[in-house]
Amino acid sequence: MATTTCARAPRGTKTRGTDRRTFLAVSFLTLARPTIAVAEDTTLYGPRGSPGGGLEAATFAGGCFWCMEKPFDRVDGVKNTVSGYCGGGEPRPTYKQVSAGVTGHAESLRVEYDPQEVSYEELLDVFWKQINPTQENQQFCDRGRQYRSAIFYHNKEQKEAALKSRDKYEQLGVFQGPIRTEIVPVTGFWDAEEYHQDYYKKNPLLYRFYRSRCGRDQYLDSVWGSGNH
């Protein structure tokens, strides 16, 4: 992304530092897949409210939001996912602003789900299996507060469930380090630009390439085995 440097990949993986704008430009030329353009940064909507229709919302930050949509989209009971920005104070943040780290927002994913089909606790399990929660203010090759991992709870019940879930994974010891994921109240969610939405569907080759080069898949495989992402 625009002003970030890349984190060192987990031991045993190979990755070259790159920001996402450079990644997009180089990948388009290298792979000859000009399926999207990096459009002018502009958010199209106001902050999201309740989803309505008997659905509930959950909001997670796990670094690059491209990498968070697919794992939740394939969960039965999840009706919609939206990439966006949460946790900052600037209204109508743009990708350019957020990636520069000037708004306080984190790249985030809003998950709208039917609680009759899938529980919030089950969504938390999906979340923990997509990130490295021992990293502070970064995820894999993306560094900065805008790439922090976080659970943005919408009510008291979600807060209690998130804390309980964190404690469970701490006790399991699977992450080999203290969990640094923030658990904080949601402060408004702004949709990201359209070219970020459903990125894994629009650009499957670039999506897989980015995940691999950033070290995310290698880390998740080392902790959970293959097939969790």
Description:
The chain is an alpha+beta fold. The protein has a single domain, classed as 2-Layer Sandwich (Peptide Methionine Sulfoxide Reductase, Chain A). Helix content is 33%, strand content 17%. It is built from eight helices and eight strands, in the order H-E-H-E-H-E-H-E-E-E-H-E-E-H-H-H. The chain has helices at residues 20-31, 66-73, 95-99, 120-128, 156-172, 199-202, 204-214, 216-224, and strands at residues 56-62, 78-86, 106-113, 138-139, 142-143, 149-153, 182-185, 189-191. The strands form two sheets. The protein has a six-stranded mixed sheet, with helices on one face. The chain has a two-stranded antiparallel sheet with strand order 4-5. Strand 6 (149-153), helix 5 (156-172) and strand 7 form a beta-alpha-beta unit. Helix 4 (120-128) crosses helix 5. The chain is globular, with a radius of gyration of 17 Å.
Number of strands: 8
**End-to-end C-alpha gap:** 22 Å
Largest sheet: 6 strands, mixed
Strand content is: 15-25%
Protein name: peptide-methionine (S)-S-oxide reductase
Family: Belongs to the MsrA Met sulfoxide reductase family.
InterPro entries: Met_Sox_Rdtase_MsrA_dom, Met_Sox_Rdtase_MsrA_sf
Organism: Picocystis salinarum
Could you list some keywords that capture this structure?
33% helix; single chain; 8 helices; 229 residues; six-stranded mixed sheet; two-stranded antiparallel ribbon; alpha+beta; globular; Peptide Methionine Sulfoxide Reductase, Chain A
Question: How would you summarize the topology of this molecule?
Answer:
Layout: H1 20-31, E1 56-62, H2 66-73, E2 78-86, H3 95-99, E3 106-113, H4 120-128, E4 138-139, E5 142-143, E6 149-153, H5 156-172, E7 182-185, E8 189-191, H6 199-202, H7 204-214, H8 216-224
